[in-house]
Design brief:
The chain has 12 helices and 8 strands. The protein is α/β, with parallel strands linked by helices. It has one domain: TIM Barrel. The chain has an 8-stranded parallel sheet with strand order 7-6-5-4-3-2-1-8. Helix 8 crosses helix 9. The longest helix is centred in the C-terminal third of the chain and has 24 residues. The structure holds pyridoxal-5'-phosphate. The site of pyridoxal-5'-phosphate has 15 residues, from strand 8 and helix 11. InterPro entries: Ala_racemase_N, PLP-binding_barrel, PyrdxlP_homeostasis.
């Protein structure tokens, strides 16, 4: 019992701290950028329903998941349906066409952040249309700003094309903004992450080509390791997991470990394995101490 408690992560404290850090970073943002309060998406992948409930009870409303099966299971669990009527799910993983139908059945699906090709746009559009909802489906276009092959997303040079495709051919989709994962393990001492600058450039191009205002196009960028700098560079949507819920151990339960692919690169998976390994070490040392 004691051991378990010693390892338990204080979600309340972590969430409060993250919110404060978000506010401070928002104040440091250049005045030339749209002063939009960033939305905090709490990323619960690999974490249990109990942690979703805990954060929800502390006022958190936006939650992110990157596996369709895991999202479907959590969002349809009795406890979430009962106790979280106001929850808003963001899908932030790589989406395969075979999973679209299941994803769209997720109750309280708020946004899909990872649209990256026309075929997928077509499919989301027609599937959503058939469901006859009274709102359009919010989507973001994912951009592969770091040009790493392991990452999904359309090329920055293709972003205007894809956004205009959505605007012209997908009346059931509501284009909200652009999303990137960005390079991992970038040394902040090297200055601003070029991925964030690429995102701003993409947004400028999209806005100019399609006659949109930059206030109308959100930027989803920034995770645990870089969300403050992302906000200073104009992020309006940060996706934060491990800083709120603790390090992930990368062993996923069998129900959600099938053929789906994560949007996270192998390199980051290694990082997570390292985190899991150090968690294991900690556990072992706590055990040998008792
Ligand atoms: C897991 C994940 C996150 C959150 O990562 P942390 O480093 O734990 O904050 C954000 N975005 C995407 C797309 C993810 O898959």
């Amino acid at each position: 019992m004691f051991r378990r408690m010693a390892l338990d992560f204080d979600v309340g404290k972590a969430l409060k701290l993250v919110r404060e850090r978000i506010q401070n970073a928002t104040q440091k943002r250049s005045k030339s950028l749209p002063q939009i309060e960033p939305r905090l998406v709490a990323v619960t992948k690999t974490k249990p329903v109990s942690m979703v409930l805990e954060a929800y009870n502390l006022g958190q409303r936006y939650f992110g998941e990157n596996y369709v099966n895991e999202l479907y299971e959590k969002s349809t669990s009795e406890k979430i349906l009962d106790q979280c009527p106001d929850i808003r799910w963001h899908f932030i993983g790589h989406l395969q066409k075979s999973n679209v139908k299941k994803l769209l059945k997720v109750p309280n699906l708020h946004m899909i952040e990872t649209l990256d090709n026309e075929k997928l746009a077509q499919m989301l559009n027609s599937s959503w249309e058939k469901m006859q909802k009274d709102v359009r489906l919010k989507i973001m276009v994912q951009i592969n700003t770091s040009a790493e092959e392991s990452k999904h997303g359309c090329e920055p040079s293709q972003s205007t094309h894809l956004v205009s495709y959505v605007q012209e051919h997908c009346p059931s989709l509501d284009f909200v903004g652009l999303m990137t994962i960005g390079a991992f393990d970038r040394d902040p001492a090297l200055g601003t992450n070029p991925d964030f600058l690429t995102m701003r450039k993409c947004r400028d191009e999209v806005c100019q080509a399609l006659g949109l205002k930059i206030e109308e196009v959100e930027l989803s960028m920034g995770m645990s390791n870089d969300f403050e700098s992302a906000i200073e560079e104009g992020s309006t949507n940060v996706r934060i997991g491990s800083t709120i819920f603790g390090a992930r151990s990368f062993q996923k339960d069998s129900s959600s470990s099938n053929s789906e692919q994560s949007s996270i690169s192998d390199k980051e998976q290694t990082k997570f394995k390292d985190a899991a390994a150090s968690e294991h070490l900690l556990k072992t040392s706590l055990q040998s101490n008792s």
